[in-house]
Amino acid sequence: MKRRLAREIAVSSLYQMEMNEVTAAEAVDMIMEELRQDNELGADPKEIGSTDDFAREIVNGVIARKSEIDGMLQQFLTGWQVDRLSRVDRQVLRLACYEMVFRDDVPPKAAINEAIELAKHFGTEESGKFVNGVLGKLLLGIDELKA
Question: Are residues 53 and 119 in the same domain?
């Protein structure tokens, strides 16, 4: 499974859902189809399936806990409101927060590093630094959030 690709699919899907008011399944299907057409998924059906499954799992996890995640993020957004962030930064932060707080299979520092790379890939020049700052603060308070 390609977790980085699954995270890219998840961020793109969350963005699509916000822009076009589609369901999680529709958003992931759209992104997967685009990747198929561009031959970016590889050829191994098992690997494609596990990447697709992981992307759907994390998208659904973020959606299921969206208000809870936004509340957590808000605590660490000095001078910002979650709904005022760029759409890309917001989705990257939501995904990272979900992985850091609600998943045991992703070390928090790995989730932060992945989020920084996603922010650089999808966002502006400043997105990586911004995401790193917010998630660094979240990491310091993560034990309280999980309690």
Answer: no
